[in-house]
Amino acid sequence: MTRSSYDANLKRSKMKVFGEVRTERLLLRSWRESDREPFAAMNGDPRVMEHFETTLSRAQSDAFVERMEKRWLENGFGLWAVEIPGEAPFIGFVGLSTPAFDAHFTPCVEVGWRLAAEHWGRGYATEAARASVHVGFAELALPEIVSFTVPENHRSLRVMEKLGMLRDPNDDFDHPLVPEGHPRRRHVLYRLRPVTREVRHLREAR
Question: Terminus of the chain with fewer CB atoms < 10 Å: N or C?
């Protein structure tokens, strides 16, 4: 995405704040104060944070929430808190964000997710990520959405592939915010562009 198209889409997004999105099973919503405790527990779980540098303390987790809330105010979009209505008031986050580092593919908008381990394996990440991608393309008119992770994160890679995202090995990169020599420094990048109505029709007919 060029700087001019990125800035234009960012300006457009500020005209409308997407506070709530419903899917078949989930509610993507703004953050509440009551989300902070379960979010901190999730960020302290080694299973959830396996593919990151380390787990987060409560203070680091709260600071993460504050950064997300600030991005919502700045951009008009961000990472939603996710709940399962009538079942679980908070299971993690999913949504769109703007990476805070420079790389060969930035500036860009990323689709990302992080769910509590007890809610893995039910398709929630894919369902919520699809809704996020729809907002990005249908409402924000983004020319592209990316996602990235370490090569060992097979769960997230499967979600990216289910979304129709594609990887070019030439796009793989060393994450600039991860220290040199760290085993989690190398990342793979997946890209997704809007599918035209005609191409979508052909895919569905197969």
Answer: C
